[in-house]
Write a structure and sequence with these properties.
The protein has 441 residues and is an alpha/beta fold. 30% of the residues lie in helices and 16% in strands. The protein has 14 helices and 15 strands. The strands form 3 sheets. The chain has a 7-stranded parallel β-sheet, sandwiched between helices. α9 links the parallel β3 and β4. α6 packs across α13. It is elongated and about 75 Å long. Bound molecules: alpha-D-glucopyranose (GLC). Alpha-D-glucopyranose (GLC) binds next to loops. The site of alpha-D-glucopyranose has 6 residues, from loops.
């Protein structure tokens, strides 16, 4: 609590109210902090030809007309929202985020704000979101709505193709006002129809907080649902940071954060992209994220008919096997040992009396913890009956410098297929030695 409050104060002074993520009400954020894992779904008309989501026409890889022809191929004919929710639930994820509207402006629900929706313009002829939000909720998942603030299709939106724009906001404020009314009416629809637990904005970079009316938007959302969480892509008015693909090398300290990451090298369905992460890579990245106090929002891209690529299903299932076996080391934990105390990822129980050490199976050896002042009462391997012994190396009885903890090697039979977890129980809350190794400090 204290740390977060301090973080908000610091954030306010260092960043002002404009430039950084706004942080408030730790209680509102608690489920998110405990959740650790979310699944991201990029689904839209781009999944018909398997082209870049919205960027394909914006970057002029294809014409706008050809891109929009994909409307005719979006059928959702094998779409099974309950099966999606079940698969997501199986991964251990606590929340799911779906693209309600990407930069191409095609809404996946039956919006009343214009006719640009799967319900009006595609053979699917339906709002595909209502049953999905219901299925998520039935599965006990928190729900997230991705929404692109920018809309390259809208006649009153300035941006369209790369290097060109329809107009400048400052030259035609009335036209911009029409766009603001339009997008804010869509947000109202999403709020009232789906009441998401999380609003996941994107595309804020094309305008300032003032132009987007970000404070008003935030207030509008929180007025409808005071518990809603807003991601950080809202020009300084969100609740948490959202690094993308590769996360910061140093541990983010200002508050909650979430890494969003693709399963191959694309957000949407891309059958020509076979650069899938392996389950080992996914799981070790996930461990690194939670070790640094963040969440992972892992993305899948279903095909237009609702089928999820086999490789993605495989990744989700392998991830689920691992998270279910090691749930106590993952969910409701906090960031692990600070850098320098252990060469690898770790998490701590909330009372900090248990350290969970993550050991990548492919390069496990003797493990060492440095600067631990506590006594270790047991070391267990979740999912097995195995306990491990340890040895304290180099402890002089009258010196304040703690010895090094050498943990015995993990027997091959107790190794997890991807990443083994050691549950190290301490005699009390974690106490770390921060001195320089001298007699006085
Ligand atoms: C980027 C892209 C977008 C993608 C998003 C996911 O901002 O513009 O295509 O949906 O990242 O995080």
């Amino acid at each position: 609590m204290k740390r977060l409050f301090l973080a908000s104060v610091l954030a306010f002074f260092f960043c002002g109210s404009q430039s950084q993520t706004v942080m408030d009400s730790p209680a509102r954020m608690q489920w998110f902090r405990d959740a650790k894992l979310g699944i991201f779904i990029h689904w839209g008309i781009y999944s018909v030809n398997g082209v870049d989501e919205s960027w394909a026409f914006h970057n002029k890889k294809m014409t706008y007309a050809d891109y929009m022809k994909q409307l005719n191929g979006f059928t959702a004919k094998n779409y099974n929202p309950e099966a999606w929710a079940e698969l997501i639930k199986e991964t251990g994820a606590r929340y799911a985020v779906i693209t309600t509207k990407h930069h191409d402006g095609i809404a996946l629900w039956d919006t009343k704000a214009n006719n640009m929706s799967t319900a009006k313009l595609t053979p699917a002829r339906k709002d595909v979101l209502t049953p999905l939000f219901a299925a998520f909720r039935n599965a006990g998942l928190k729900t997230g709505a991705y929404f692109s603030l920018l809309d390259w299709s809208h006649q009153d939106y300035p941006g369209f193709l790369k290097d060109s724009s329809r107009y400048q906001v400052k030259n035609d404020p009335a036209r911009w006002k029409r766009y603001l009314d339009f997008y804010q009416s869509q947000i109202k629809e999403i709020s009232t129809k789906f009441n998401p637990d999380l609003f996941w904005f994107d595309g804020d970079w094309e305008h300032s907080a003032e132009e987007w009316q970000a404070p008003k938007l935030r207030q509008m959302i929180l007025q409808h649902n005071p518990n809603a969480i807003l991601n950080g892509r809202l020009t300084g008015y969100g609740d948490y940071e959202t690094p993308e693909q590769n996360f910061p090398v140093t541990r983010p300290t200002l508050g909650p954060w979430e890494l969003c990451m693709t399963s191959n090298n694309n957000w949407g369905y891309h059958p020509d992209d076979s650069a899938y992460k392996t389950p080992y890579e996914l799981i070790t990245i996930f461990a690194d994220v939670i070790s640094n106090g963040g969440n992972l929002l892992f993305d899948i891209g279903p095909r237009e008919d609702g089928w999820i690529p086999t490789e993605q299903v495989h990744l989700l299932k392998e991830l689920g096997k691992w998270t279910n076996k090691h749930s106590s080391a993952i969910f409701e934990t906090t960031a692990g040992l600070p850098p320098g105390h252990y060469y690898g990822a770790s998490t701590l129980s909330k009372d900090s009396s248990t350290i969970f050490l993550f050991v990548p199976t492919h390069n496990a050896g003797k493990l060492v913890i440095k600067g631990l002042q506590n006594k270790i009462t047991s070391i267990k391997i979740p999912g097995t009956e195995q306990s491990l012994e340890h040895k304290i190396v180099g402890k002089i009885s009258w010196s304040p410098v703690p010895g090094l903890v050498y943990i015995n090697e993990i027997p091959a039979s107790a190794m997890d297929e991807y990443m083994t977890v050691l549950e190290v129980k301490l005699d009390g809350p974690l106490k770390l030695y921060k001195g320089k190794g001298g007699l006085k400090d």
